[in-house]
User: Fold Phosphomannomutase from Schumannella luteola.
Amino acid sequence: MSDGVAPHSTLAAARAWIAQDPDETTRAELQKLVDAAGDDVATVAADDAGGAGEHAAHAARELAARFDGRLEFGTAGLRGELGAGPQRMNRVLVAQAAAGLASFLLARESHPTIVVGFDGRHNSEVFARDTVELMQGAGVDARLMPRRLPTPVLAFAVRRLDASAGVMVTASHNPARDNGYKVYLGGADAGSQIVSPSDGEIQAEILRVAAGSIADLPRSDAWQLVDESVVDEYVSTTAAVASDAARPIPFVYTAMHGVGYETAARVFAAAGFGEPVVVAEQRDPDPDFPTVPFPNPEEEGAMDLSFALAARSGVKLIIANDPDADRLAVGIPDASTTEGWRRLTGNEVGLLLGDRAARLAVAAVADAADADASGPDATPRPIGTLACSLVSSPGLGAIARAAGLDHAETLTGFKWISRAPELAFGFEEALGYLVNPGSIRDKDGISAAVALLDLAAGLDAEGRTIADALDDLAERVGGYASGQISIRVAELADIPRMAGALRAAPPTSIGGVAVVSAEDFLEGVGDYPKGDILRYRLEGDGRVIVRPSGTEPKLKVYIDAASTTGPGAERLAAARELVARLDTGMRELLS
Assistant:
């Protein structure tokens, strides 16, 4: 397509798309491109390269970008930019996905059920209603969540209603122009997200549907709304994550223009934490996310309004959810920063919550042994697994070993973490935490906030802080620090190019620290499936992992370091110093 010519096959595909598209906006958008490209675009481009030809060539390139392939199920189901064509998120693509998923479910069981949720993004409710109509029309018993709600509420509903599957229409923390389609499976999958081979089987059914027109797919309005009692049960179950002695603590909360506030506020009140000081500008759902270019608490500047409000309000903590409330960010006072606050890394929060889960598991065994007067004198080993993605802090393994619990490292994504055997707690460094696996099998930013608030309130009652808890943890299991380099690319081809350069010339040292071993997951590593991941282990307990993002056009580098020398604060300082050296070294390698 470099000459700007739209071949007849692309034009034919675009016209067929227009003919079946029920959305007036995307239909007009695509028709405009087809009209601009035209069948004689090659002649026009040659005759008038600076005028109409240039316009036609641009339209041809845009058509090629939209029709050269299609969005496929990946880390989070479907996710992409809104617009017309199979490489965009739109009503045609969603209808094909819904019909393909329906065929997959009907092949698995005779009377499948599905529950569908949606957030506050552009077209989320439209996509959700299309899904339940098509599911019901195909013979799947479909239920729609009663209103726009957080992703964790939908994940909870899949298990609570014993549904065969669930769909959440959301793009989580992606930019405003995106939307997505996240799929969960019930039954043996217990409400976790799809993994292989199910994702490939669903994709095959979608392609079969896409060979025809969605106008021919049966629809039905006999679907039902999920009863409000399911939302009430999510609130009470999530509030119960807090200890019986939960107490109020002053904190700021932001929903980041998403759907988290209403549900989170109910949970906080039910748990006994009181009413938060709310970032008013970001409280209510707004699909344009006007105060943040990227509605992701990890992004630079995303929590600036929270920091400013916290500084004015005299609170002790900041709690932030992303727009669909499946992620949690935490801010604590820090006099060394300009704002007087800093956001904890996902690994810091993960280790704090992992340590909390470990202590609860140990206490549960001890309580059970005390209650059993006829049992042995020795307290039995606690049961449970602390799990994290392989790019998350190895400190969770140290916590598990100290507590006598199992530890599992999985591929990235909660579709893998949630499947760890006897899971007690799971996390990934990208602000995702699973603290109540008995009721939900995905990350949940609201229940994680309850666990964190419970921890912070307990510390506050003792005159201590989250920062003190981090020092104490380093004293007990070692000081762990982490860093991340995230390189956003304009062309997806840049990602394999950069990774290929590292494969062609593997580094022998990074930041002056010797590489002890290098592992390429494309060649196979342990029991992991082959994947585009590079892992380097370094002298002095350092580790660097390089992989592409599963949801965004980014190459990500994960850096970890540890120290067991000196008191807790010194251990953390030493680990952070090593992370800084490795960060500089990796930037030089990738430049």
